[in-house]
Amino acid sequence: MPATTPPPAELHRRVIDWYGAHRRTLPWREDPDPWRVMVSEFMLQQTPVVRVLPVFEAWLERWPTPADLAASPAGEAVRAWGRLGYPRRALRLHAAATAIVESHGGAVPGTYDELLTLPGVGDYTAAAIASFAYGRRAVVLDTNVRRVFARVVSGVQYPSQGVLRAERDLATSLLPEDDAVAAAWAASTMELGAVVCTARAPRCEACPIADACRWRAVGYPPHDGPPRRGQPWHGTDRQCRGALMAVVRDAAGPVAPELVAAAWSDAAQRERCLDSLLDDGLLDLAADGRLTLPG
DNA sequence: TATTCGTGGGC
DNA sequence: TGCCCAAGAAT
């Protein structure tokens, strides 16, 4: 059967209705306070929901407002970040909280343009906060939404590596006019991509728009083109930096350099990564030569 | 535009 | 077992 493309309003209704019936209960959805939404979005950048949940709860209990976080040392944020990965996100969240206190009266701003000025907030996160926390109309284009559109509309398994102009135009053209409907559409398409239209084994039998999916209609052709590059890990600077950070993060106080050195055998790489961590502000060098999280 | 930046779980 | 992937941002 050919994929007949329903009118946009029909597509919106079916996906939003599906969301109403099947959406996961997540803490930042049950109480979409802007600061809670913002914290969740930072943590969810490249990190799965199940790993974020416990850290999110502890974080909000300790720092219920941006001002609370801004009043703590940045290093405490890095430590509370735990093993979520990409600890620069913790530093940027702390810096964003500071900017919110200094420039926005302590309240998370609600417009895309204001949000975009905050450290660690890019196109996706600005749109997500404006939409999920403030109910505003915004083009929320994350990896889930991109995959749904790639399959349903373009008939391909995966979206391109970067966001193309035509892709953004498509997402914009599909965005409902009304703010509340647009926000519901954003959340719904993301959820559909996250739990049904997944990267590896899509559950098309549970999809509310399977009959409208072009990829399905053309027989699920596999990705065609240059191989999708996996990120190398073993022996990389990222692995080294992670090992060094773990030593300091899990220590109660300042750490002797010999103890940090024991975490990575390649001396040249170790020194290079240590320098980069100091340069990034993820580590500080005390006067006595010991290493600490940033004050 | 292409790289870099952590971490861990599923297949 | 390795490989792929997960609500990206900054440069």
UniProtKB/TrEMBL annotation:
Protein name in UniProt: Adenine DNA glycosylase
Keyword Glycoprotein: no
Native organism taxonomy: Bacteria, Bacillati, Actinomycetota, Actinomycetes, Propionibacteriales
Taxonomic superkingdom: Bacteria
A GO biological process held by the record: base-excision repair
GO MF annotation list: 4 iron, 4 sulfur cluster binding; 8-oxo-7,8-dihydroguanine DNA N-glycosylase activity; adenine/guanine mispair binding; metal ion binding; oxidized purine DNA binding; purine-specific mismatch base pair DNA N-glycosylase activity
Keyword Ubl conjugation: no
Residues covered by the HhH-GPD domain: 43-195
SMART domains linked: ENDO3c, FES
Assigned EC number: 3.2.2.31
UniProt similarity note: Belongs to the Nth/MutY family.
Pfam families listed in its UniProt record: EndIII_4Fe-2S, HHH, HhH-GPD
UniProt keyword list: 4Fe-4S, DNA damage, DNA repair, Glycosidase, Hydrolase, Iron, Iron-sulfur, Metal-binding
Cofactor(s) this protein cannot do without: [4Fe-4S] cluster
Swiss-Prot/TrEMBL catalytic activity: Hydrolyzes free adenine bases from 7,8-dihydro-8-oxoguanine:adenine mismatched double-stranded DNA, leaving an apurinic site
